[in-house]
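Narrative of accomplishments. A recurring question from our advisory board has been how the design workflow behaves on a single, concrete structure rather than in aggregate. To address it, we present the structure tokens for one chain from the evaluation set, followed by the sequence designed for it. No filtering or post-editing was applied between the two.
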């Protein structure tokens, strides 16, 4: 779930990208990698996923400073077949690794109809939705799943002890009505949002958590010491068996296929990644895909909205409309972001870009 920003000051997206890239470079990241990571973070803010945009920048910088995020090595290819590869990411920047994996998977999809890359020991890959439009613009279907082996904040349905991370899954595909960009967690809310609300002393809009005794709660404090509560799986107390099932699926496609997961020692913040590209031309054909998915898209967007709903939107439609507005009018950063960046800007002798007039 994205949080609703109360910010009024807006900043030029290109200026924010330049700021983030420069900060990564001053932290020691090569320019090409710094540009990729900055681009994905700002894309998250442009789309409205502001817990997974520039809010991550100070944390990434701290990870570089501590040595937990590597910046200059290269990934290792562990397995390689015609349409499949597995990489050891060696804790390199997640957005840079994921974009390289996309390039590889799309090239193989052009040759074989599909390409899959799995990555173990990637650092955090940020907002999954931020990658999808690159694939849909090229006419591809993209699947991107990630888990966080070092994090356990989500309990299995019916249980009280956290086992999983929120483990998001994202799917993008083109239609004649515009792309569908799906990005959902297998938990009912995210670590990013609960962490932010905890720091702000605020509560969630609904009881999406359980405390250590199994009682439903809307207070993020139940996730932090001295408590040991859990985020509920997608579907909550009523239908959380569905989110639990999706969590297991993501574990199989990430930890299972890469051979690196929750039973491995030395757990640190980062992701295990499954990325797959499908070329409709290799199946029934691009025209057939467009016909079928165009019909479905129109049946949804043309559906009579129920009372209180303005219109039926496809997943990603609101994010792309928000992106277009913010590219035109400036990015409305969440008000917590620039204060969190202030010590890093001072450290690197930089200033934040001024807000737009």
């Amino acid at each position: 779930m994205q949080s609703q920003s109360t910010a009024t000051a807006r900043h030029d997206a290109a200026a924010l990208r330049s700021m983030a890239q420069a900060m990564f470079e001053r932290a020691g990241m090569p320019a090409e990698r710094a540009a990729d990571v900055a681009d994905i973070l700002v894309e998250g803010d442009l789309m409205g996923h502001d817990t997974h945009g520039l809010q991550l920048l100070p944390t990434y910088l701290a990870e570089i400073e501590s040595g937990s995020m590597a910046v200059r090595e290269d990934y290792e290819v562990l397995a390689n077949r015609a349409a499949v590869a597995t990489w050891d990411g060696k804790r390199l920047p997640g957005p840079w690794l994921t974009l390289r994996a996309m390039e590889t998977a799309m090239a193989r999809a052009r040759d074989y109809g599909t390409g899959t890359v799995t990555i173990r020991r990637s650092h955090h890959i940020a907002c999954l939705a931020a990658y999808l439009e690159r694939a849909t613009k090229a006419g591809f279907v993209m699947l991107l799943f990630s888990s966080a082996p070092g994090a356990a904040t989500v309990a299995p349905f019916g249980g009280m002890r956290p086992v999983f991370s929120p483990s998001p899954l994202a799917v993008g595909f083109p239609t004649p009505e515009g792309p569908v960009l799906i990005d959902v967690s297998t938990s009912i809310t995210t670590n990013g949002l609960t962490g932010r609300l905890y720091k702000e002393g605020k509560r969630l809009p609904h009881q999406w958590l359980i405390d250590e005794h199994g009682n439903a709660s809307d207070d993020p404090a139940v996730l932090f010491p001295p408590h040991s509560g859990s985020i509920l799986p997608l579907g909550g107390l009523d239908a959380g068996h569905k989110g639990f099932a999706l969590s297991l699926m993501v574990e199989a496609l990430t930890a299972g296929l890469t051979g690196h997961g929750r039973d491995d020692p030395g757990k640190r913040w980062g992701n295990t990644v499954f990325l797959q590209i499908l070329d409709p031309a290799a199946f029934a054909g691009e025209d057939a895909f467009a016909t079928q998915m165009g019909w479905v898209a129109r049946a949804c967007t043309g559906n009579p909205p129920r009372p209180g709903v303005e219109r039926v939107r496809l997943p990603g439609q609101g994010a792309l409309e928000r992106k277009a507005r913010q590219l035109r009018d400036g990015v409305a950063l969440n008000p917590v972001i620039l204060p969190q960046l202030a010590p890093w800007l001072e450290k690197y002798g930089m200033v934040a870009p001024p807000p737009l007039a």
